[in-house]
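Section 4.2 – Deliverable D4.2 (structural model, holo form)

The reporting period included a commitment to supply a predicted holo structure for the target in complex with S-adenosylmethionine. Inputs used:
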Amino acid sequence: MMLPFQTAFYSFTQMPPRKLAPKTKPAQQPAAHVDPTAPATASAPGLTSAGRGEGRPAPKPKQSAAAPSEDPSASSGAAGFLPPGAGHFRAKKNAFGRQFGAPLTVPRRIRDVPTSLIEAVNDFHYAMMNDTPRNEFYWNLLKRHIVPGVSSVLEIGAGSGLLSMMAARLGAKCVVAVEGSHDMAELARMNIRANGLQDRVTVLSMMSTDFLVKHFAAAAQAIDRASTTTAAAAPAEGSAKPSTDHSRPDILVSEIFGTLLLGESAHDYIQDIRERVLKPSTVIIPQFGKQYAVPIECPTLDRICSIDSWNGLDLRHVNAMQDTASVVFTKKYGFRLNTVPFKRLSDPICIANIDFKRVRRADILQEQRHEVVATQSGTANAMLLYWEASMDGEVMSTDPDLTRDNFPRDMQWGQALQLLDAADAGVSGASPAAESPLPVKLTVKGPVAPADGESRPGDRLGVLVALTDDRVVAQFKVRVV
Ligand SMILES: C[S@@+](CC[C@H](N)C(=O)[O-])C[C@H]1O[C@@H](n2cnc3c(N)ncnc32)[C@H](O)[C@@H]1O
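Output (structure tokens):
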């Protein structure tokens, strides 16, 4: 017997191919964006892979801010990240089973399902949805802001519909769930039907950059009409009078954060929807985000990222190849940072402090100069990048010290690392230090307490940060100043 969703996916394969991308969004053409399902290319600077949000800069993303207009052609399309499955057409050649030749076999339930969906779900959706503190973070915030029977909610990046269903369970009068992947949107519809929430949650399969006020108004009105005929959905006696103005949402919720906070272009997508679709009073959940970076000593990392010699054999030519330019995700290295010894050599610096109610890409400084004091002595092997999203006292963080008990979070987001090389740390600006043919280790001295000899403060570290045009990937140069 076929399960309901098998039927749906089988029927996809008989549908005519769709257009590859919306014609009004040249900046959203897959060819111009990094497709996380595609193999990394040598020309992708700042390459990262195998994490939430590839964090690779799209080649020349459009930098203009979203126009405050409903005209789809005026929408910014500014984001650099195109989620897996968005814009893919669902021809049979994308079927997961096609990758397996005889004598290998594929279970019938996933044979004809689009590869991008199977890969996205297995790569991170399971871990993400099992990240209970993440789910609770959203549940608590939605609970705080939803007025049962009154609030209207828009979710961008609905995935399998979990957050939208939370909103409906919490009493939202209507929920519009926007999902860029057609196949994922279909999965969300199935979940919503399975939970009997289809009268209050509408899933629209489109990128948020194509979403207009009229889409929201139409979906909300349809839900409104259905709910007035359903006694169960009527507001309780004495509760606030339901809003009749459903043309714009009361609440925007999204979880489009990558291993790097902005790896899935949350700043661009939220700015775009904020300027075109939201009203000034719309609550944005979560409202705040901070991307942190801190130099760390991690000998374990050094052992998988460098080699000097073995048994008297000089291997420095290999060491010369060390990549100190890219940002790499712990998930790609294949380890959890909090399971190996590492120490932070200073307090963190915040390279992006974001209020999603206001953020514009251009407000995130592309070149930054920070100074921190070493709090411990050691070799700065790498910059560690982690982030924090917050609102109303609720915090969700990828700080490895805070994810020790959260295996799913480390497996879906983890953290990002950039190896450091003191040789090219030209933080003084005009004339970078002469580059060495070999990577040079940066040693820093922490403070000395009076009890341990002549007291002195820790080294002052100059940190130069360069961000890609889309403000997603950061590159660090650190030196003792
Ligand atoms: C990380 S998942 C989160 C899913 C769900 N909200 C949850 O929390 O369980 C993000 C989803 O958003 C979709 N997505 C990302 N950016 C989007 C955008 N700008 N418009 C529509 N969908 C988007 C992706 O296809 C993916 O399914």
